[in-house]
Design brief:
This protein is of the alpha+beta class and 286 residues long. It folds into 2 domains: 7-105, lambda repressor-like DNA-binding domains (434 Repressor (Amino-terminal Domain), Orthogonal Bundle), CATH 1.10.260; 110-276, Beta-Lactamase (2-Layer Sandwich), CATH 3.30.450.180. It is 45% helix and 12% strand. The chain has helices at 7-20, 41-48, 52-60, 68-77, 82-91, 99-103, 108-116, 136-142, 155-161, 174-192, 197-208, 210-215, 265-276, and strands spanning 121-125, 131-134, 228-233, 237-248, 253-259. Strand 3 and strand 4 form a beta hairpin. Helix 8 crosses helix 13 (265-276). The protein is globular.
C-alpha cells in the first residue's frame, strides 16, 4: 500500500514541533524581542540546512513533497524523537525512513548537548563508528567525516581501507588503534548478532584488509580507546588531547568531546582550530 503525501497534516505537524522547540533547546539565546512561542521559521530552516522560504511553504501546506533525505534533515533540525521522525516520514508519503537514514538520526538528547558544545571539538558516532554530526571545530581537527557513504561511513572500515585515515594520528599509536578497532568491532558483532551491520563490516574487512584479516582471529576483547588522543595536524602540528565519551545506549550512539590541558601548547592549537572551524585536513575519497 503506497502512502500519500499529506501536505496539510505535514504543515500542522511542523508548526506544532517548531512551537514546542525552545531557543534554549538548540543553544540559542531567547532575547528580549522574542514574543512568539518556539523558534522562528528562519532558525529552524537553518538547523535543517534549507531555505526559510522552502520551510515556510512546507508549513503552509503548499510546498513540494520533500525527498527522503530532506525529511531526515527536517527530523534532525527539529530534534524529533524516533517516533516523531517515523510520523514525519509517513506524512511525507514514505512508509518509513530507509535504514541508512534511520541510522543517521541523532538522539535528540545528544543533539541538545551538541548545541551547547558548538564552540568545542565534538562529534556524535553511530553503533559501528559512523560520524553522524560534527561541530566546526571537530571538522577542523579531524576532517569532514559525515559525507561518506556505504561501508566508508564506518571509522573502522576507513582505518583499514584508507591509508589517509591514519595520517592524522601519531604513528606510534597506529598498532594500538588497529587492535582496538578490531576488538570493538568484535564486541559489536557479539552484541548485535550474525546478520548485523557490524557482522557485515567484519566480513568485508576480512576480504579487504590483510591487516584486519591477521588481527581478527586473535579474538582480542576488552580493548578500549585511551582517554588521551595524540593527533598530527598538517597546519598546527601535534596535539595531545583528552577524549571524553558520553553514551546513549538506547540508540547505540556516543558523543566524543576533545579537550586539552589548560595552559598547554595543545590547548592553544585546539583554540586556533576552533577559530578556523573548517576542514583543513586532507582525507581520502569516500
Amino acid at each position: 500500500m503506497e502512502r500519500t503525501f499529506d501536505r496539510a497534516a505535514l504543515g500542522a505537524f511542523l508548526r506544532s514541533r517548531r512551537a514546542a522547540l525552545q531557543p534554549e533547546d538548540v543553544g540559542l539565546r531567547r532575547g528580549a524581542r522574542r514574543r512568539a512561542p518556539g523558534l522562528r521559521r528562519e532558525e529552524v530552516a537553518e538547523l535543517c540546512g534549507m531555505s526559510a522560504d522552502y520551510f515556510a511553504r512546507l508549513e503552509r501546506g503548499d510546498g513540494p513533497q520533500p525527498s527522503e533525505q530532506m525529511a531526515a534533515a527536517v527530523a534532525r533540525g527539529l530534534r524529533l524523537t524516533p517516533d516523531e521522525r517515523d510520523h514525519l516520514f509517513l506524512l511525507c508519503g514514505y512508509r518509513a525512513a530507509r535504514r541508512e537514514l534511520r541510522d543517521r538520526h541523532v538522539s535528540p538528547g545528544l543533539m541538545r548537548i551538541m548545541d551547547e558544545l558548538s564552540g568545542a571539538a565534538a562529534q556524535v558516532m553511530g553503533p559501528v563508528g559512523e560520524t553522524l554530526v560534527q561541530t566546526p571545530a571537530a571538522v577542523a581537527l579531524l576532517g569532514e567525516q559525515t559525507h561518506y557513504t556505504g561501508h566508508a561511513r564506518s571509522a573502522p572500515y576507513r582505518w583499514f581501507a584508507d591509508p589517509a585515515e591514519r595520517a592524522r594520528y601519531l604513528a606510534d599509536d597506529h598498532d594500538r588503534h588497529a587492535r582496538t578497532n578490531v576488538a570493538l568491532l568484535r564486541a559489536a558483532v557479539a552484541r548485535d548478532g550474525a546478520g548485523s551491520a557490524a557482522a557485515e563490516l567484519a566480513s568485508v574487512l576480512q576480504r579487504r584488509s590483510a591487516e584486519f584479516a591477521r588481527l581478527w582471529p586473535r579474538h582480542e576483547v576488552g580493548l578500549r580507546w585511551s582517554e588521551t588522543k595524540r593527533f598530527v595536524h598538517p597546519q598546527v602540528g601535534r596535539l595531545d588531547l583528552y577524549c571524553q565519551l558520553l553514551l546513549e545506549p538506547d540508540q547505540g550512539q556516543s558523543l566524543l568531546v576533545f579537550t586539552a590541558t589548560p595552559g598547554s601548547a595543545s590547548r592553544e592549537k585546539l583554540a586556533l582550530l576552533t577559530v578556523m572551524g573548517t576542514d583543513t585536513f586532507p582525507v581520502g575519497a569516500p
